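note to self: dont lose this again. the chain is below, predicted strucutre after it. 548 aa total, dont forget to put it in the shared folder this time
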Amino acid sequence: MIHYTISCPNPAAQFLRIDLNFSCQAGENIRLQLPAWRAGRYQIANYAQNLRGLTAETQGGQTISLQKISKDCWALEVEESMQIQLSYDYWAGKMDAGSAWVDDEQVYVNLVNCCFEILGRSEEAFDLQLDLPNYTKQILTLKQTGTSTWMAENYQVLADATVLAAKKVEQETYTIGNTRFHAWYHGKIHFDRSRFIDQFRAFSSRMIADFGSFPEEEYHFIFQLLPYPHYHGVEHRRGTVITFGPASSLAEEEAQEELLGISCHELYHAWNVCRIRPKEFLPYDFSKETYTQAGLVLEGVTTYFGDLYLLKSGAYDLPTYLRHLEKIVQREAAHFGWKNASIEESSIDLWLDGYVTGIPDRKVNIYSRGALLSLCLDVILLQEGSSLAQVMKGMWESFGLPFNGYEVQDFEKQIAARVRNPEKITRFFDAYVRGKEDLYPVLEDCFSALGIEIQKTRSENTLLHQVGIQLNGKQVVQQIHPESTAYQHLMVHDQLLNLNSENARWEVEVLRQGRNLKLSFDQELGSYFPLLNLETGIVTDLRTTWMH
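---
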């Protein structure tokens, strides 16, 4: 068995001390690979930049030479069988749901950040000991074997785990079937815990009922309730970490809805991604980019169901659900990346710039675009007497339970098998998943079938709706509608100093890279960036089925 010990001699310095002990055979060529990325974030993170002071020695204290052979891989060779201890410091100074943080109140780390994989020995079991006597509340998403000790069946399980050791943590628990759910709160609580956990129990129960079973016997919601603005969640097989702030905002209903939304989203990942996984992710190769076209399934389906199960379980009423769905529809309507990249292409480009805005209209957002594609597919299936939930149950039974990787075509086949005309699904995927056609007309029809209307309105913001210019609070141009006349004259990041209307022309003064410019162009009666509202009309049988 391979042994890890984590300690923190000086929390103020924000460094963890990590010791790795393992045996090796005479002549064995050891390769120590630190992950370059983590599950749930398909982007190179280069965790080795947080590591310092790496040393290796024998059980008797003799130093062994390490050779660095890449930015995050080290090699060593031994002439005889022996026990080796690898020691190093890891900087824990980034607070989000996928990183590591140390201070006087807690030691928190996602182990994929800082634990080496011994290449060729990834299937060996690991045990982990926490040497953190000042942090007595210790939570890990691993199987506990003793006081401050846990074990992982192999490296993939170890890399998926989270450690939270703190001086104070609040806890709630509930049980559904054979699974014990824990909610751990680090930080100040400003909401009704009893009501909150009832809502968790409701959406958890509904998901489990639809899938037919839950993947694990124990699951942990770990909440970092922060005093400053933050919003992030990361999925794990046996739990999730969610950072949210400011914690004081959770006294308000709207912030509680946001926290419910991300929590439900991350729980859905316990099936979809953590177990229902593209074949290229089985197993994860954390040393390099692993490309997939499956963004629609990974995050689109999860984003769609993350909110829908709050509606189905009663945690959201219909107006609340539609208010959150409006934000997704509005976000998609204001961007035109679908003209330049499909969602499959954008899935691959997660490794390029998928988590930042990037250049204007280069790609689609797999979360929001994928959610609307999922809604359309769900409505098509509902009209055929099936549902997307039944498709995902099929994906669970075919790929999640046996833990076999799927291809995007498998998802498409699961849908096609549930409709009378499979060619209809092929055309949909060709046009909107593999292709770059405008989804909006289809989306309107799907909403109409649910008795929901997309209403377009305009505010008093003439610049936005008539000229097609979106400004921030400092009067700096953030976006220009590509079909507007202004697109030929103004630039993103111009600061608007003055705007006048004379003789059917716009007279504009801007500050551009330190230069004052005066521009003039024709006025137009444009209709850009409309405000979209989802309004309920006549209750249809389809809507009733969809909601329940």
